[in-house]
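Suppose you are handed a protein chain with no further information: no name, no annotation, nothing but its sequence. What can you learn? This example shows the usual starting point.
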Amino acid sequence: MSEIKIQIETANKKVMDILLNGQPTWVDVKPAGEVIPGFEQNMLLHPGPPFDDVDEIVQALRTSLCGAAIHEGLAKTVEEAWNMIKNGKIVLRPAQDYSASCAAVTVISASMPVIVGKDMAFGGVGYASIHPGTNPKCLRWGYYDEDVEKELSWFRDVFGPALGEAVRSMGGINMRTILSRTAGMGDENHVRQPASSSALILDMVPALLDLKIEQRDDVIRAFVSNDRSFLHVMMAGVMGILESAKNIPMSTIMVAMGGNGTKFGLQFGGTGKQWFSVAAPKVLGQLLNPSWTEEDLAGYMGDSCVTEIYGMGGFSAIASPAFVRLTGGTFADAKKRTEDAREVSLGEHLFAPIPWDDYRGFPVGVDMRRVVATSIVPTSHGGSARLEGGQGGAGSVLVPMDCFKQGLRTFYEQVRR
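A reasonable first move is to predict its three-dimensional structure. Written in structure tokens, the prediction is:
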């Protein structure tokens, strides 16, 4: 075995140890500007890779960015906010470059509460916004008006602090425990997680009932009515694990994945924070309104696919054939998505076995060398955003091969130096 190959295998073994043995744990909720390292007051974190030109930002994300700026007090109007973004007075940064993740069209500003997820085994810390709940008109889907502002303020002043107090009183919640308890209950834990969210709610309710705040009942009602609450908690936990897995020299394992509506990109352990991007593909499957068409949709939008890096979503499609069916697929399609991910991954989580898949776990640790060598790309699940704002539907997309080819080419150029 060549010296370079030994170095790659050693680095990948280190990353796989983190991915397989990390302990993602929800430990707190705090304002983003207080806990995310390097966060500046005039900064907004957005999903996916960076933009070459702000004029390429789709309308839905432009609305979220401007709304977040107004919420933060950086601007008074949408027009003022957009001008400040264009002239650089408001700085845009990819959330994943700051160990954070923004689902769909979410934007994070300094005062917004974020879930703090810590890997209790390796020490990495990650962050994600709180899921906004059942109201479809929210910043997460590219809407902003007085009603959205009211919700954002309530999350900042009441809901976020209440969740933080509750989870601190519990000493944190290990997400692997939730996943193991709900294995075989039909979640793929990216687009579908009613079982995991219900288990999380059952754990949290006693602590929420102990809160000594005036709006306790409103907090509990908002939390227990949301069957997607676990997604954003899991995103923060995965970001904590990836914080330790990133920037390991000579590793060829995928450690970042996301889209900004215009571009879709990946990062790999051995190539630092460099994004390898292509034009964002569209998430296709089922549209929420029969009058909408593919032309109404933005390209892949959001960082919730970081859960796929950990083995969820399309990677664990066989765990949720119901979701695959909902988007036009079959049981065979669900199985193939998981098998394809296994072909290009270096390991498999065993703590949440899938009963109807011979009790196998879900694959983790995509190696770009395997993807390029086999011409097999994994499938990502996701929600689709409309260009003008709002959720268009949900479905799946093949992770673009060219992202892996770009990464591998850059990696070997580094090795030869």
